[in-house]
Structure formats: structure tokens, C-alpha cells
Amino acid sequence: MSKKNAHAPVAVEASNAGPAEKYEGIITAAFGRHYEVLLPDGRHITGFPRGKKSPYACGDRVALEVASADQAQITRHLPRTSLLYRSDDYREKLIAANATQVVLVVATEPSFTDDLLARTLVAAEVEGLRTLIVLNKADLNEHLAQARERLAMLAKLGYRIIELSAKEDASALLPYLAGEISVLVGQSGMGKSTLTNSLIPEARAATREISEALDSGKHTTTYARLYELPQEQASGGKLIDCPGLQEFGLSHLSFGQLEEGFVDFRPHSGHCRFRDCRHQNEPDCAIKAAVEAGQIEPKRYELFHRIAGAKC
């Protein structure tokens, strides 16, 4: 079953400062083995984990011991309310922690993939996160009708979809972000960076400063970053911008979790003759019966099996 996500506030609070200067902070950017951490007094410092592992994600709340004016050691995790991540057979890639909402950005062009969109929705459903789909580049009329048609099936399932052109005006998105910790996810080329820069004018400058600090531009599209949204338009809202994705592996999910992540399967799950039904050639399969009755779209059924793959 999906986990229900509590809406815990993200604001950091200082613990009792002792001689070692112990704090609690929030990771606002992750760069592999080191992290940018926001302290209670508004300073950003560089945090380093203990040992060789780096089990932290953008949005994580952590305890630190400040070693100098601009560096600290991360001593432990504070409790998470959610963790969005992807995985394949070999490794896991953390995306964002403590988010309450996933905002998936697609565009009229270049074309988006149904597979990646579905996989991200499944990951969000299993983690108990709200979802919002943004159809960007809605001003490009040539492929607008086709994009709408492809998203119509998801709209029918109850997924929220809004249209905008980030280059012209992204303000229509702000009311959906108010009070949420939203993680922005999408394929490369969907206009995600343009959308972020439109919502948060200082985002471009922050990206440039980090690149200069690292003496390399290669990190500008390979790390996630947390931003505060304009209070007057999205009160209490925060946005975690992530690198563009070309795939979203779900190797960490069981067959049952994948099934739970397909919202249109839920009314029929558990009603098959066999408890371990894989919804293929088994007799009296409730999912197949729902497909035949028009209650589940055949494309969704095919997509499920494509994602489930070896788990069937």
C-alpha cells in the first residue's frame, strides 16, 4: 500500500549550541561527496559525511558539527517523511528527500516518453506524494493537440495537468506550489531549467556561483538544488530542481508495489483467483477482466507489463 506522507515543515531549527557548535540543517544541494547545507542563521556551509558512504539527498534534514566558518561534518540523518529515488540492477540514485509533491514537466516538443512519465508517477504513488503534470511549450501549436491527446488518459485517471509556456509566463504554476515541497522532474529538453529560472530569478545566478566555486561547469546539470519560492505568490513553497532524466529505474519496487502504483489497477487488485497472479495467462484474472470490460486502458495494461518486466 502507498505510504501516506505527513506534511512536516522543512524549516531548520538550531539545537542547543555547545562548544562543538552542533546544529541541525537542511541539504540544499548535493555534489556527490559533499553537500551545501543551510544553517538556522541563514548561512550556507559545505557539509561532509562521515566514512565513505554518502547516503544523503537534496532536502534531507541532518545534524552537523561545524568545524569552521564554512565547513561542517554531517553526523546523522534526521527523520525523513519521503524519499524519491530511482534504481537499476546495479545502483540507486537519490533524487530528493522530504518532498510532498512531484511536478513532472513534459513538452509539446521534443516528444516525451510515456514510459518515463508512467515510471515517475508510479514512484510518486508508492512514496505517497501528490503529483502534477506540467505541459510546457504550449505556445508551440504544431504538436500541442498530439501532446494533449497523449495526456488525456492520465487526466481521465484523475492526474492534475496544467499547460503553460515557461518562456512567456510560468506564474500559473505558483498556486500549485504554495505550501508544498515540490520536486521538479523531467526529461532533458522539456524546458525544466527555463521553468525554474522563470519562477526563481536568482536560480541562474546560484547555478553560476556553484559552477565557479567548483571550478567546473560540468556540475551545472548534474545536481539537485532546493530553492525558496516567492512568498507573496507561493507562500511556504519550496522547489527542488533536479537534473534532466532519460530513464527512471524501478528495480527497488516489488511486483505488488508496481501494481499499487498504477492507480487504475487498484479497484481490481486482490480480486484475482490466485494471490500471486501476474495478470498474464492466469485464469480468472481481475486485471485482465477489467481490461476486457474497458475499465483499464489496453495501453496502460501493456505499459504495466513493460515496466514489470522480469518481475512477472
Task: From the structure above, extract its key features.
312 residues, alpha/beta, six-stranded mixed sheet, five-stranded mixed barrel, 13 strands, 25% strand, disordered N terminus
Question: Whole-Å distance between the termini?
Answer: 19 Å
Radius of gyration: 21 Å
Q: Please count the helical segments.
A: 8
Oligomeric nature of the chains: single chain
What's the story with the biggest beta sheet?
6 strands, mixed
Uncertain segments are 1-18, 205-221
Following the backbone from N to C, one meets helices and strands in this order, namely: EEEEEEEEHEHEHEHHEEHHH
- Please tell me what the overall shape is: globular
Average pLDDT for all residues:
86
Helix content class: 10-25%
Computed structural class: alpha/beta
Q: How do the strands line up in the largest sheet?
A: 10-9-8-11-13-12
